[in-house]
C-alpha cells in the first residue's frame, strides 16, 4: 500500500522515525459499499513516498498498484498570521492538485511543538489547528489530524492514536472506491462478452488488477476467488473451443517439459497476456501458479496439492488432445516435474512442527499422491522394468498405443532428471526408490496404510526383478500378511508366491515352509496345480533335514476336526480313549508322526490322548487315540495337535461357541493314589501326611512318585529317607515296613508291588502361612508287565489346622503334682472325644478325675478340664522326656460323611458303577451335605438329613451319560429318602471299623532341686481385731522330693520375703530375713502383723528364695486361698444433751 506525503515546513525529518516504528498498520476493518460482509485486515504494509506533482497523473486501471491511496500534508505552524498569509494558500493548492486525481484520499497533519501547545495566548484566540479544520473540513468527515510532538503529559499511544486512526480510514476509503470502480468496469466488460471484438485477455488483465488490489490489502481469500472465477471463464471458453485470442496452444518451447509451475518469473506471462500473444499452455501455467501463490499466503498447502492432483492429469489430457506433434515423453517429463515442484515447495514452505496436526496428516497424504503420480511417469515405457503386474497397474492415463511399440521408439525424455534416471538400471532404481520412499512416508503419516502397502509391493517387485532376493523377501514379508488381514487373498497370494520364490533362492527353509502354509491357507484362490505343487513343497520341506526348528500352524482351512466320542473305561488296561475324525482338504496323502488330543480340568492338570505314526488320505479319516494317564475328573476338550516332521498343526476347541465337556472316570481296579492325614499326630514334631498308592489289578514292576506343593506357604522337608508300610488288601497279614531313599520329590522311586497291595508313604512338610488347607499335586508313573507306561495324577488338599487347643497349669504339693489340662474346640463342627490319657515313662499317674467318663462331645468354643495327680517315679531322671497328653477324637462331620459314603459305595457296587464312587462321594461331601445340622446331631445323637437338592444333582452329573446320570441321581434319592433319620448307633455300625484320630500334646513336667512348703499359723484367730498387733507363726519346710539328682541334702541358706498388702496389713518387724534350712527339717519364724481393715482378709504371701543361684527352689503356699476374720474393736461412750435442744441418747461407738 502506497501513501504520498508533502512537507512544506521540513517536519518530516522529525517524525519519520516515530511514524515508521508504527508501521505496518494493524487492525483495519473494511466494510464494502456493495453490501458484502465486513472484512478484517490484521496487518497492512504501507510504503511512504514524497509527494510530487507528477504523481498526480491518473494511471490506467491495470496499473492501480502504482497509484497512491492516501496523500498526507504535514504542516507545523503556531502563528495565526503566518498561517493566514502563507500556509493556508499552500494547503489549498495541494488539495486542488490531489483532488484532481481519481479515488485518492488526503489528510492534513498538524505537527505542534510542546511550547506551542502550552502557550497561554492560545486560550485568548483560536489556534492554527482550529483554523485549519474550519477552512478545509467539509461535511462530516474530519480530514485534519494533530501530532503533539514532545508532549510528556501524553503517552506515545495517545499522541499517535488520532493520526493512525484517520490514516487507516483514509486508506480503507480509497481502497473501497477503487474496488467499486474496478467492479463496475469488470461488469461492463463482461456484459460485452458476446459482442464482436471482445477479448478474453483484456478481461483477464482487468480482473487481475482487482485481484492485485485485494492481494495488496492482504485480502488473499478475495483475490483467490477472482482467480477461480477467471479459471471458470477459461473452462467455458475451452468448452466452446473459442481459443482465437491465443496465438497457439504452446508447450513446444525448450524447458516447457521441465518447468516449475510455481515460478511466475520464468516467462513474462503478464506482458504476453496484455499483448494477446500468450499460449494456452503458458496461460494455464500462469493461472495455476497465481492460485498456488495465494494459497501459500493463506497457509493452505493441502488445497494446493489437491488442486494439483486435479490440474496436472486434466491439463495433460488437454495437451494430448490439442497437440498433434507432441514430443516423445513430453507429458511424462512435464507431469513428473510439475508434481515434484509442488511437493518440494510444500516441504520448504510448511514447517515440520506445524501447530495443526490434522492439517499435517492431510498434507502428507496429498503429497504422497503427487509423488505416486510422479513415479508413474518413470515406469515401464522406458524399458527398465517388465510389462507385468504390479508395474502395469501404475501406468498413467492411456498409454496403451505407445506401450505396444515401446521397444522400437527411441526414448528422448526432455527432462534432464528423467534422462539421467532412465540411462542405467542403477540410476533408474535410485530415482524410483527415492520417490517411492517419500510417497510411502507420506501415506504412513496420513494413516493411508493400504496405499503404502501398494507402493511397498511395487518396490519389492522391482527388487525381485533385479534379483535382489534378500531385500525383496524382507519387504514382502512385512506387507503380505496385511493383505491377508484385510481378506485380500488374491493379492496376498501374488505377493506370497514371489516371497516363496525369494526364500527358495535364499535357502531359508523355515520361512519357505511358512510361505507355503500361507498359500495353502488361501488355497481356494489358487489353481489346482498350484495347490498340489505347494502341498508337495510344504511336506517335503518340513520332513527334510535342513529344517532345524519346529513350525506351528492352525488346522483350518487345510483340515477340519471333530471328536466323535470319549470312552473312559478300558477293560484290559488303565486309561481311556477318544475317537476323532479329521477331514483332509489337501490334494495329497500325508504321513504324520503323532496325533494328540488334549483335555484340561480344574481338578487335575491335563490328559493327553495320542496315536503315533499314521497316514491321512484326502477326505475324511477316523482315528482312535488313547490316554495312558489315569485321572478322574470333568474335562474340557481343549486342542488337537497333528505333527508331521517339524510341522505341528493346532486346533483349539476353546475358540468354538460351545465348549465340549466330558466326564472321565478311572477304572475301579486301576492304580490309585490318595493323600490323607496321618492316624497319629504329635505336636512339636514335623507335620506329615500319608501318600497311599494302591495297585488295584496291576502288577507294578517299576514306579516313581512326584510330589509338588500346589499352594503357597508350604514346602516339603528334605530328609534322607522316607518310611513306608506295605499291606495286602483283605488278607489280614501284618504290614511290612521299609524305607525309601530320597534325593528329591520330583522322582521318588517306589518298590515293586503286586495286585491288591497298598504302599503308604509318610512325607514330612512345613507351612509358612496359616491356612486351613494346603494343596499337593501327586503324579505316579508306573510300568506294567505289558511294558506300557502309565501315569496317575491327583491334586488333593490336606488340612493343616487341628480343631483342638490344649493349655495346662501345675499345683505343687509335697509328694504329688496336680496337672490341670484345659481342652477347647476351635473348629466350627463339634468333635467326639473317645479317650484321653497322660503318658510318661518316669512318672506314675495315681488318679484321673471327673468330668470325663469314657466318651464326650465337645462343641465349638466349649472347654473340658482334666486333672491328673502325679507322683515321681523311682527311676525319674532330671532330663526325662516330656509327658504326652493323648486325645482320641473324631469330627462329627467325618463321622457322618464316612457313614453316608459307605452307603453310596455299596449302592454303586450293586449297580456296577464303582468307577463313579470317588466322584459321587466327593460331591456328596462338598455339595449335598452342606445343610446338615451338626450341632443338633451332637446334642441329640440323631442325624436328620436335609432335603435332596435335585437341581444341584442335575448340575453335578450334567456331563455324564444320560442313562448313568439317571442311575446316579436315583441312588442319591434313595439315600436321602431311606435314611432320613439315623441315630448314633446306626452311624457307628456303618463306619466300622472306626479309627479315630490320635493327637499327642507334649507336656513338659517340671522338676525342682528344692520344694519349700510355707504355712502361716494364727495363734488365736478369734482375737484378731482391727488396729491390734497379732502374732503369726511362719512354718517353713524344705523337701528334695522333686530333685531327681538328690544333690542338695546339705543345709542351705534362704531368705523369706513377706509380700504385704499395705492397704490391709501393717508389718511390725522384718519384712525380709535370712535363715538356714535343711531338707526334711521345718523352721518356725514369728511375724507380727497389724490388720488395718475389718472383715475377711487374705493372709500375706511369702516368697522363699535361695541365696545360692545354682539352687532352683519351688514354693508351695499352704494358706494361698485362706482368709482370716478381722473384728472391730468396741468401747462404750455416754453423751448428755440438753433436753431443751434435743433428745438424750447413748450409743456404742466404734473406735477407729
Automatic annotation (TrEMBL):
Residues 408-508 form the Trs130 NTS domain. Residues 668-797 form the DUF7077 domain. InterPro entries: DUF7076, DUF7077, NTS_TR130, TRAPPC10/Trs130, TRAPPC10/Trs130_C, TRAPPC10/Trs130_N. Pfam families: DUF7076 (PF23273), DUF7077 (PF23274), NTS_TR130 (PF24967), TRAPPC10 (PF12584), TRAPPC10_1st (PF23036). Residues 543-651 form the DUF7076 domain. Residues 1013-1120 form the TRAPPC10/Trs130 C-terminal domain. The keyword Transport applies. This is Trafficking protein particle complex subunit 10.
Amino acid at each position: 500500500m502506497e501513501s504520498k506525503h508533502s512537507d512544506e515546513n521540513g517536519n518530516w525529518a522529525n517524525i519519520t522515525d516515530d511514524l515508521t516504528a508504527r508501521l505496518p498498520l494493524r487492525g483495519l476493518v473494511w466494510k464494502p459499499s456493495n453490501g458484502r460482509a465486513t472484512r478484517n485486515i490484521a496487518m497492512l504494509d504501507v510504503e511512504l513516498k514524497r509527494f510530487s506533482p507528477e504523481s498526480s497523473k491518473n494511471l490506467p486501471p491495470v496499473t492501480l498498484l502504482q497509484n497512491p491511496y492516501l496523500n498526507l500534508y504535514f504542516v507545523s505552524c503556531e502563528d495565526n498570521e503566518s498561517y493566514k498569509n502563507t500556509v493556508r494558500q499552500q494547503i489549498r493548492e495541494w488539495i486542488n492538485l490531489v483532488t484532481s486525481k481519481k479515488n485518492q484520499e488526503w489528510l492534513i497533519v498538524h505537527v505542534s511543538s510542546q511550547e506551542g501547545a502550552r502557550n497561554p495566548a492560545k486560550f485568548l484566540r483560536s489556534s492554527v489547528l482550529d483554523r485549519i479544520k474550519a477552512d478545509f473540513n467539509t461535511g462530516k468527515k474530519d480530514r485534519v489530524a494533530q501530532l503533539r510532538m514532545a508532549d510528556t503529559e501524553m503517552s506515545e499511544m495517545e499522541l499517535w492514536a488520532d493520526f493512525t486512526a484517520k490514516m487507516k480510514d483514509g486508506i480503507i476509503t480509497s481502497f473501497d472506491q477503487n474496488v467499486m470502480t474496478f467492479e463496475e468496469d469488470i461488469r461492463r466488460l463482461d456484459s460485452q462478452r458476446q459482442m464482436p471484438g471482445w477479448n478474453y485477455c483484456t478481461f483477464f488483465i482487468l480482473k487481475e488488477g482487482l485481484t492485485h488490489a485485494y492481494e495488496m490489502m492482504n485480502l488473499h481469500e478475495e483475490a483467490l476467488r477472482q482467480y477461480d472465477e477467471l479459471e471458470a471463464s477459461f473452462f467455458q471458453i475451452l468448452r466452446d473451443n473459442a481459443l482465437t485470442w491465443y496465438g497457439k496452444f504452446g508447450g513446444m518451447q525448450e524447458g516447457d517439459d521441465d518447468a516449475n509451475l510455481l515460478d511466475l518469473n520464468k516467462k513474462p506471462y503478464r506482458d504476453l497476456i496484455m499483448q494477446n500473444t500468450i499460449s494456452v499452455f503458458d496461460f494455464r501455467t500462469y493461472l495455476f501458479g497465481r492460485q498456488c501463490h495465494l494459497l501459500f499466503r493463506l497457509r493452505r498447502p493441502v488445497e494446493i496439492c489437491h488442486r494439483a492432483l486435479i490440474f496436472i492429469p486434466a491439463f495433460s489430457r488437454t495437451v494430448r488432445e490439442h497437440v498433434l506433434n507432441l514430443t516423445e515423453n513430453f507429458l511424462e517429463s512435464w507431469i513428473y516435474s510439475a508434481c515434484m515442484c509442488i511437493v518440494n515447495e510444500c516441504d520448504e514452505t510448511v514447517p515440520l512442527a506445524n501447530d495443526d496436526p490434522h492439517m499435517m496428516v492431510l498434507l502428507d497424504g496429498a503429497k504422497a499422491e503427487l509423488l505416486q503420480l510422479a513415479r508413474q511417469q518413470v515406469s515401464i515405457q522406458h524399458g527398465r522394468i517388465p510389462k507385468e503386474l504390479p508395474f502395469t497397474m501404475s501406468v498413467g492415463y492411456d498409454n496403451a498405443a505407445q506401450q505396444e511399440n515401446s521397444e522400437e521408439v527411441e526414448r528422448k525424455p526432455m527432462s534432464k532428471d528423467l534422462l539421467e534416471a532412465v540411462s542405467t538400471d542403477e540410476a533408474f532404481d535410485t530415482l524410483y526408490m527415492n520417490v517411492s520412499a517419500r510417497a510411502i512416508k507420506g501415506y504412513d503419516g496420513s494413516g493411508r496404510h493400504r496405499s503404502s502397502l501398494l507402493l511397498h509391493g511395487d518396490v519389492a517387485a522391482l527388487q525381485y526383478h533385479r534379483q535382489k532376493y534378500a531385500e525383496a523377501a524382507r519387504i514382502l514379508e512385512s506387507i503380505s500378511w496385511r493383505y491377508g488381514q484385510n481378506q485380500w487373498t488374491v493379492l496376498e497370494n501374488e505377493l506370497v508366491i514371489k516371497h516363496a520364490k525369494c526364500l527358495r533362492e535364499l535357502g531359508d527353509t523355515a520361512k519357505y515352509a511358512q510361505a507355503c502354509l500361507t498359500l495353502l491357507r488361501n488355497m481356494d484362490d489358487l489353481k489346482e496345480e498350484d495347490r498340489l505343487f505347494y502341498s508337495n513343497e510344504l511336506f517335503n520341506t518340513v520332513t527334510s533335514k535342513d529344517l532345524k526348528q519346529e513350525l506351528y500352524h492352525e488346522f483350518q482351512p487345510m483340515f477340519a476336526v471333530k471328536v466323535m466320542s470319549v470312552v473312559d473305561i478300558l477293560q484290559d488296561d488303565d486309561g481311556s480313549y477318544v475317537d476323532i475324525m479329521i477331514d483332509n482338504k489337501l490334494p495329497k496323502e500325508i504321513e504324520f508322526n503323532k496325533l494328540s488330543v488334549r483335555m484340561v480340568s480344574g481338578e487335575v492338570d491335563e490328559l493327553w490322548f495320542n496315536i503315533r505314526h499314521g497316514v491321512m488320505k484326502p477326505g475324511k479319516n477316523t482315528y482312535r487315540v488313547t490316554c495312558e494317564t489315569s485321572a478322574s475328573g470333568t474335562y474340557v476338550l481343549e486342542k488337537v495337535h497333528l505333527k508331521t516332521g517339524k510341522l505341528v498343526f493346532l486346533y483349539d476347541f476353546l475358540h468354538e461357541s460351545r465348549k465340549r465337556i466330558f466326564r472321565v472316570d478311572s477304572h475301579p481296579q486301576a492304580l490309585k493314589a490318595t493323600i490323607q492325614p496321618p492316624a497319629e499326630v504329635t505336636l512339636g514334631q514335623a507335620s506329615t501326611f500319608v501318600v497311599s498308592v494302591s495297585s488295584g489289578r496291576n502288577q507294578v514292576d517299576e514306579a516313581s512318585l512326584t510330589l509338588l506343593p500346589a499352594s503357597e506357604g508350604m514346602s516339603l522337608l528334605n530328609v534322607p529317607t522316607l518310611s513306608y508300610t506295605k499291606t495286602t488288601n483283605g488278607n489280614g497279614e501284618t504290614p511290612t515296613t521299609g524305607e525309601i531313599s530320597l534325593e528329591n520329590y520330583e522322582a521318588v522311586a517306589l518298590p515293586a508291588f503286586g495286585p491288591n497291595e497298598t504302599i503308604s508313604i509318610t512325607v514330612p512338610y512345613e507351612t509358612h502361612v496359616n491356612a486351613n488347607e494346603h494343596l499337593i499335586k501327586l503324579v505316579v508313573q508306573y510300568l506294567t508287565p505289558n511294558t506300557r507306561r502309565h501315569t496317575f495324577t491327583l491334586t488333593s488338599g490336606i488340612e493343616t489346622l487341628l480343631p483342638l487347643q490344649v493349655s495346662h497349669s501345675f499345683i505343687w504339693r509335697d509328694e504329688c503334682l496336680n496337672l490341670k489340662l484345659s481342652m477347647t474346640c476351635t473348629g466350627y463342627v463339634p468333635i467326639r472325644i473317645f479317650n484321653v490319657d497322660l503318658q510318661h515313662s518316669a512318672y506314675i499317674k495315681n488318679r484321673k478325675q471327673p468330668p470325663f467318663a469314657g466318651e464326650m462331645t465337645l462343641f465349638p468354643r466349649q472347654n473340658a478340664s482334666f486333672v491328673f495327680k502325679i507322683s515321681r517315679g523311682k527311676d525319674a531322671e532330671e532330663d526325662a522326656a516330656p509327658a504326652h497328653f493323648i486325645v482320641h477324637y473324631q469330627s462329627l462331620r467325618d463321622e457322618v460323611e464316612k457313614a453316608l459314603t459307605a452307603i453310596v459305595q455299596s449302592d454303586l457296587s450293586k449297580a456296577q458303577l464303582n468307577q463313579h464312587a470317588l466322584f459321587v462321594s466327593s460331591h456328596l461331601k462338598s455339595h449335598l451335605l452342606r445343610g446338615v445340622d451338626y450341632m443338633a446331631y451332637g446334642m441329640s445323637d440323631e442325624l436328620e438329613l436335609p432335603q435332596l437338592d435335585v437341581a444341584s444333582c442335575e448340575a453335578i452329573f450334567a456331563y455324564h451319560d444320560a442313562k448313568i446320570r439317571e442311575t446316579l441321581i436315583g441312588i442319591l434319592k434313595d439315600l436321602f429318602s431311606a435314611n432320613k433319620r439315623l441315630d448314633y448307633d446306626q452311624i457307628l455300625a456303618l463306619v466300622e471299623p472306626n479309627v479315630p484320630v490320635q493327637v499327642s500334646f507334649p507336656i513338659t513336667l517340671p522338676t525342682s532341686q528344692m520344694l519349700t512348703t510355707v504355712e502361716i499359723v494364727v495363734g488365736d484367730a478369734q482375737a484378731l481385731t482391727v488396729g491390734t498387733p497379732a502374732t503369726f507363726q511362719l512354718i517353713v519346710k524344705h523337701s528334695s522330693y522333686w530333685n531327681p539328682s538328690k544333690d542338695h541334702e546339705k543345709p542351705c541358706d534362704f531368705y523369706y520375703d513377706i509380700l504385704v498388702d499395705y492397704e490391709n496389713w501393717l508389718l511390725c518387724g522384718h519384712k525380709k530375713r535370712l535363715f538356714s534350712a535343711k531338707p526334711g527339717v521345718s523352721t518356725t519364724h514369728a511375724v507380727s502383723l497389724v490388720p488395718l481393715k475389718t472383715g475377711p482378709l487374705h493372709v500375706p504371701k511369702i516368697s522363699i528364695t535361695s541365696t545360692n543361684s545354682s539352687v532352683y527352689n519351688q514354693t508351695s503356699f499352704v494358706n494361698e486361698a485362706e482368709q482370716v476374720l478381722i473384728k472391730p474393736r468396741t468401747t462404750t461412750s455416754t453423751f448428755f444433751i440438753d433436753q431443751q435442744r434435743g433428745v438424750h441418747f447413748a450409743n456404742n461407738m466404734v473406735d477407729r
